């Protein structure tokens, strides 16, 4: 149910039939990256605000300035806002647009990973550090070397290696990095440099993290997403190809790479046998929500697995004023995920 259809939505009916309720209502939140640390749930969302920027296809209206960490004692308990965890004014290299973050823990230290535009208007990914999962976080003076684009998701594998998955099209600038160097074209067209429909789709990236989690340990590698015949998904395969919002989780020893298809508004997944892929497309996790963007994380809490996602229901459909939600996801015997409908 993307943005252009909202005139037809009766929000009272929609909320009554919604799969789940907003987790918090006093601020707008989006892009929830959820983790289970020491028996509690911590959610690292974007903090949506209305900064008065006009809507455009490069996402200028997503003019967020800070992050708040939301915590929950258990999956059904109240979601608590722990206040400002990091503000853009305290990030030496960042100018604006604090987009979808993630976090992880190593040896009792917590790391917040976040994209923001630098003073040249280029999205980079930074790290900020705290001794508490709720912050406040102290930003490193510079972004991660060789980082680019948006939507970092940092996955800890069973052997204690950490990998960052990232990338996002259009306003996320992934299409500008095809030569390995930022293309400074000023056309401001979100689709400039997107391959033709019959060419392979642009791919997200993964990099193993250094031991201190502050840098990449290797040059980021492209992640292949293949169809059922082993061919790369094509750029025109809009219902299946990667757009943004990467996430990685494991189930029964397999690696599930999930992501948003952006302008077709699905959360999809592909499965592989190692953290680098290739991953074979398997299906949808979540059908379109109210609002243009769809973004998620997947977090195991005790024996169950939950999808954390967002929609724009709290603001009655305003694209950049979203609210985070959660719902249980279930797997079939063969490992496939049962698709969720956000409204019944
Ligand atoms: O929240 C800003 C951007 O919108 C995120 O980085 C994207 O994933 C989309 O949700």
CATH architecture: 5 Propeller
Q: Encode the helix/strand succession as letters.
A: HEEEEEEEEEEEEEEEEEEEEE
In DSSP terms (H or I, runs of 4 or more residues), the helix count works out at: 1
How much helical structure, as a percent, in the residues? under 10%
Bound chemical compounds: beta-L-arabinofuranose
Overall number of structural domains: 1
Protein architecture, described:
This protein is an all-beta fold. It has one helix spanning 11-16; strands at 28-37, 40-48, 66-72, 80-87, 94-96, 102-106, 109-118, 123-130, 138-139, 153-156, 162-166, 205-208, 221-222, 225-226, 244-251, 254-260, 267-272, 279-286, 296-301, 304-311, 323-329. Strand 3 (66-72) and strand 4 form a beta hairpin. It is globular and about 50 Å long. The model has no long low-confidence stretch (mean pLDDT 96). The structure holds beta-L-arabinofuranose. Beta-L-arabinofuranose (FUB) is lined by residues 30-31, 46, 62, 99-100, 150-151, 168, 244-245, 293, 295.
Short description:
With 344 residues, this protein is mainly β. It contains one helix and 21 strands.
Describe the secondary structure blueprint for this structure.
Blueprint: H1 11-16, E1 28-37, E2 40-48, E3 66-72, E4 80-87, E5 94-96, E6 102-106, E7 109-118, E8 123-130, E9 138-139, E10 153-156, E11 162-166, E12 205-208, E13 221-222, E14 225-226, E15 244-251, E16 254-260, E17 267-272, E18 279-286, E19 296-301, E20 304-311, E21 323-329
Parallel strand pairs: 14-18
Antiparallel strand pairs: 1-2, 2-3, 3-4, 5-7, 6-7, 7-8, 8-9, 10-11, 11-12, 12-13, 15-16, 16-17, 17-18, 19-20, 20-21
The structure holds beta-L-arabinofuranose.
Beta-L-arabinofuranose (FUB) binds at residues 30-31, 46, 62, 99-100, 150-151, 168, 244-245, 293, 295.
């Amino acid at each position: 149910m993307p943005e252009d259809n909202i005139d037809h939505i009766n929000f009272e009916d929609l909320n009554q039939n919604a799969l789940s309720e907003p987790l918090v209502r006093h601020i707008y939140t989006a892009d929830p990256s959820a983790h289970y640390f020491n028996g509690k749930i911590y959610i690292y969302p974007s903090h949506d605000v209305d900064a008065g920027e006009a809507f455009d296809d490069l996402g200028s209206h997503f003019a967020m300035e800070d992050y708040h960490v939301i915590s929950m004692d258990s999956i059904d308990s109240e979601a608590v806002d722990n206040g400002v965890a990091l503000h853009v004014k305290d990030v030496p290299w960042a100018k604006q647009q604090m987009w979808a973050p993630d976090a992880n823990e190593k040896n009792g230290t917590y790391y917040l990973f976040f994209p923001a535009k630098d003073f040249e208007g280029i999205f980079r990914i930074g790290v900020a550090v705290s001794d508490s999962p709720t912050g406040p976080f102290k930003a490193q003076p510079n972004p991660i070397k060789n980082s680019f684009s948006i939507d970092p998701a940092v996955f800890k594998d069973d052997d204690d290696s950490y990998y960052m998955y990232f990338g996002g099209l259009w306003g996320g600038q992934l299409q500008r990095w095809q030569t390995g160097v930022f293309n400074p074209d000023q056309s401001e067209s979100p689709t400039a440099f997107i391959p033709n429909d019959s060419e392979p789709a642009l791919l997200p990236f993964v990099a193993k993290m250094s031991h201190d989690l502050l840098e990449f340990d290797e040059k980021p590698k492209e992640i292949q997403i293949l169809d059922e015949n082993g061919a790369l998904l094509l750029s025109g395969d809009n219902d299946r190809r990667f757009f943004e919002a990467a996430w990685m989780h494991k189930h029964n020893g397999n690696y599930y790479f999930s992501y948003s298809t952006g302008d077709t508004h699905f959360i999809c997944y592909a499965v592989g046998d190692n953290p680098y892929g290739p991953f074979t497309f398997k299906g949808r996790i979540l059908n379109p929500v109210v609002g243009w963007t769809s973004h998620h994380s997947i977090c195991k809490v005790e024996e169950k697995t939950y999808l954390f996602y967002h929609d724009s229901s709290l603001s009655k459909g305003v694209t950049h004023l979203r609210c985070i939600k959660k719902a249980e996801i279930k797997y079939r015997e063969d490992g496939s995920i049962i698709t969720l409908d956000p409204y019944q």
